[in-house]
Amino acid sequence: MVRAVVCRELGAPETLRLEEFPSRALKRGEVRVAIRAAGLNFPDVLMVAGEYQLKPELPFTPGMEAAGDVTELGAEASGVAVGDKVIVKMRHGAFTDEAVVPPSQLTPMPSTFDYAEAATYLAGHGTAYHALIDRGRVEPGEVLLVHGAGGGVGLAAVEIGKMLGATVIATASSDEKLAIAKARGADHLVRYDREPFRDAVKRITDGRGADVVFDPVGGEVFENSMRCIAWGARLLVIGFTGGIGSAKTNLLLIKGASVLGVRAGEAVRKNPALGEVRLKALLRWAEEGKLRPNVSHRLPLGDYAKAMRLLIDRKAIGRVALVME
């Protein structure tokens, strides 16, 4: 029997149920993967609540990414072999012991990662890559302001931004989160509750402001970001965990600034070539030891609600993974 977390009604994580199903036979071209770990992302929480752009038909299993071992190949399935360690890319369905997918949803697991790291890599770092490279076009020497730097995508942006040669200002809500951001390359650290970040950015840059803002928070954070930007700044809208902010058009005009929406997954669906370049770069950087997700919590599959609450309550530092016993 295969265990899966099932959403039968929209709501809080506690409305989900862990259920068992018989393992189904493979169809032509399909691959069976024994899932060893699944990564949690904030869109999982939004999807379960019915507040995400993608609204799967009920019932569904949440989870956008996983890692495990190929255990069986269907007829005409090619490109993978039984025993391969792989990352499984999904729009939903990852919180389970077993996945049946086409080979196109699989990518080799970096040899430098364990299962939990592999299961928490591509979504967060892929979003940061798309934001900073495809959309923000960060250049060496520019100032990058990263909000929510203790979160999964924020910490990935710190890593990639530093690798691109930017001066990284990381903001977060605790010293513990900022310490991890510093270890991953942040040049300057700002705690929201100790100094208004807009004042800190002006102080750090001698009044010039940030060239690029990476914002997964939104709300007042987005609105205040417009008051500490340099000429020609790019404000990258990653998410809205803190609410939906309003863009002051006069501030954008005065600074010649741009507001850019970031949807890494949708960008690849519109232009698959973007995804191929991104994936090759992320896998290469992982193998070279340049990038690695920080997995602060590893919980068993049955603790799915507790794991999701870690994201909601912002207790995670980097990523959270469900690990199959």
TrEMBL record:
Top-rank lineage group of the source organism: Bacteria
**Pfam families the UniProt entry points to:** ADH_N (PF08240), ADH_zinc_N (PF00107)
InterPro entries linked to this entry:
ADH-like_C (IPR013149), ADH-like_N (IPR013154), ER (IPR020843), GroES-like_sf (IPR011032), NAD(P)-bd_dom_sf (IPR036291), Zn-ADH-like_protein (IPR051397)
Molecular-function GO terms, alphabetical:
oxidoreductase activity
Which stretches make up the Enoyl reductase (ER) domain?
A: 11-322
Q: What is this protein called?
A: NADPH:quinone oxidoreductase family protein
